[in-house]
Amino acid sequence: RPLNKVLFFPSKVACLEHLFSPKTARSCFCPLPHGVETSFSRLLRHLLSASSSLDLCVFSFSNMDLSRAVLLLHQKGVTIRVLGDKDYSAITGSQIGVLRKAGICVRCDSGSVHMHHKFAVVDGRLLITGSLNWTLQAVQSNRENILITDEAELVQPFIEEFHRLWALNDPA
Amino acid sequence: RPLNKVLFFPSKVACLEHLFSPKTARSCFCPLPHGVETSFSRLLRHLLSASSSLDLCVFSFSNMDLSRAVLLLHQKGVTIRVLGDKDYSAITGSQIGVLRKAGICVRCDSGSVHMHHKFAVVDGRLLITGSLNWTLQAVQSNRENILITDEAELVQPFIEEFHRLWALNDPA
Ligand SMILES: [Zn+2]
Ligand SMILES: [Zn+2]
Q1: Do the beta carbons of residue B20 and residue B42 sit within 8 Å?
Q2: What is the pLDDT of residues A108-160, one digit of tens each?
Q3: Which of B55, B87, B113, B116 to mutate to test the interface with A (most CBs of A within 10 A)?
Q4: Residue range A4-11+38-168, CATH number
């Protein structure tokens, strides 16, 4: 049975520590609400479910929690490829440079006015896409949507487009 | 069998006249290519398939062809509701004022930093959503995606979110 989910934002703000370090989270004393599922915690949960690969194609990427999630997957040995927008990647607060320094494979699109996608493909089978840029404002302040699906008819074209854009922006 | 389609942009530029006036299009002598299907012509075709209702929730709306399509549906008696972003709707080139003057029901969202959605629901059964803003640049210059589906699990949440936002922004 196919997975089809929709998440709407802005998300409630809640502690996300349990998603990153399940062992120590019980002792988290931060002031945020604990034990609360939000649109954002659901989004992170689906990203963190990656066990072999994560392909990201994102216009803007400044959200620290999303960056932490990607770095955590990288540490776990998940193969990560990030395709960003050439202009946005240079902006203050962009996490693209942080990911690159951590050893993650990053390319910037230079063949269009803007690379405006905001999608992720998890393990070559789960598509996460929508209006949401990977920024704090998008998550906490804007009205946004994220659609999560493993329908092959929807996932496959995104996989192919990622491969096409990845090859197109090979710096070599 | 469910409909699941993905369109990628930028779109090739081609004459769209046949979509708007099928009778006279045969005699179009504009300099654009004719008889060519593009991502944009497919998007317009799905929008123009509306026979009873069209609910639009769009951050920015300046594209003249999309505006022409919505006005044509309005003339045909399709019930149209447009929810826009409060800041963007006031910007030069926005078609929101044009639609309002034509008698289409328009509301502007004022309860968030940005109403960043870009989705349409056709006849309460077909969802059109993605990264694409309804501008000329998005269609012709940016890398963008549009997902078209009639999967109830995906369409229904967007219908409910539209109703919620529409009621929330009732000016009365
Ligand atoms: Zn905490
Ligand atoms: Zn023509």
Answers
A1: no
A2: 998 888 999 999 999 999 999 999 999 999 999 999 999 999 999 999 999 99
A3: B116
A4: 3.30.870.10
Q: Which of B123, B150, B163, B170 is catalytic?
A: B123
What was the ipTM of the complex prediction? 0.94
The answer to whether domain B4-168 has CATH 1.10.10.10 is no
For residue A4, the distance in angstroms to the closest alpha carbon of chain B comes to: 6
Torsion of CA B114, B120, B126, B129, to 10 degrees: -50
Nearest to B6 among A137, A143, A154 (CB): A154
Indicate whether B25 pLDDT > 70.
no
Minimum distance, in Å, between the CA of residue B147 and any CA atom of chain A: 8
Q: How far apart are CA B98 and CA A120, in angstroms?
A: 36
In the sheet where B144-149 sits, what is the strand order?
B4-9, B144-149, B126-130, B118-122, B53-58, B79-85, B105-109
Domain limits, chain A: 4-11+38-168
Nearest to A8 by CA among B169, B114, B117: B117
Separation in Å, CA B48 to CA A56, A133, A147, A151, B69: 33, 29, 24, 26, 6
pLDDT in tens, B110-141: 888 899 999 999 999 999 999 999 999 999 99
Instruction: Give A22's contacts (C-beta < 8 A, 6+ positions apart).
Output: none
How many CB atoms are closer than 10 A to CB B146?
25
